[in-house]
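tool_call: predict_structure(chain=1)
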Amino acid sequence: MFDGERIKTIDRVSSAGLAVSEGRLARLLRTPFSTGLGEVLIYDGRGITHYLRVDELWDAHYLIWEEPGLIVASTGTNSLLWITLGGEVVRRWTAPGESDSCHLNEAYRAGDRLFGCAFSKSHKYRGYKKDFMSGTGFVFDIDSGREVIQGLCAPHNPRFVDGVWTVCDSGRELVVQFDAETGRELRHAKLQSFTRGLAVTDDFWVVGESAQRVEAGSPTASFAVLRREDLSFVARFELPFQEVSDIAVAPLELAEAAMTGFRTNPLRTSEMDQLQMFRKLGMEPARLWATSEALQPWQCRVRIEAEIPGRWMPGELKLVGCAITNLGEGFLCSELPRPVYISYKWVRTPVSPELQYAEGIRNRLPCMLPPGNSLRSRIEVIAPDVEGEFDLVVTLLQESVEWFDVIDPANACSARVQVRAEGQATER
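tool_result:
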């Protein structure tokens, strides 16, 4: 992930394509050429929503969104596959020749036309390898077969933007622009290594440079930023790996969702983190467990944000959403011998009636909360049995040790609420 200033590694899972559309990110995972089979992950703003295993995919390259799901280039079978979000192949287009003869590597939609990109017209298995550096690559209209760009060396990522074609002429380490009507070259940018992965922003082109694809030069991959108006060079950023497959411009929440990945179930995440901890020590535990020892005051520092309704019925049970950030130095978990819980207190105001019970339900933390981390949870809260005005204070407590708000009132979130029986209670 690059935010304009810093590069951050999201994960180390090898990928072969990225596509963003309407708040979703599709990610094609790289699989061994020898085994066939393809895998696709779909993310929304919270993490992974779909895992697709598509057995018909072979050496898949790139993917685009297209109703009812995706189009993926099955390079190993010279095919484009239309795949639903259920993993079903509902349509197939195949170029002539044996498996991976032309290295068909991408589908691209420009208006109402679908285009493909290939290294050569060979009909023999991997025949493109003999002559692709002699300019046999091309971009073509899938339905008509018309070639819109010719003479390319290992082309990738055709894009139709600003009325011209822009494509990675990867073997020549170029990004090239062509006239859409004549196919004549308009301009190009010479970069430092194999160009692959191309994205456009309002002002720039961003292009990947793979070090692994060249014999000399930089020991790591990079990406270059070019001006959109004329392909002039702006900047280069080194990357902590050797090869770039694809680049996508995405909203920040989708990048953060990619970091979350499968870690949307806090119980499973907690269990797997504990298991990994044991395995690093060379141990295979008979059961997963965590303990919660008595915390010191400096370890009991949290920030709590709670969505507290303003009106309640007497004795009403509600779910209240809250977000908790661990600002202290302790690990917070709801395990014995001294579990930490999310709980609450009903506090009287000058006009409140007497209360029989002021302390509330103990709600378990959904997972261990390390220092500096945050989590969201919904907790059960039950209103007093009597009518009146009260302050509802949401905080943490460590059983048999202390309430966090007693240590510091900043460790709580509170709101004044009305408990009334008449009429229908409404939330503000």
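agent: Residues 424-428 have pLDDT under 50 and may be disordered. Proceeding to next step.
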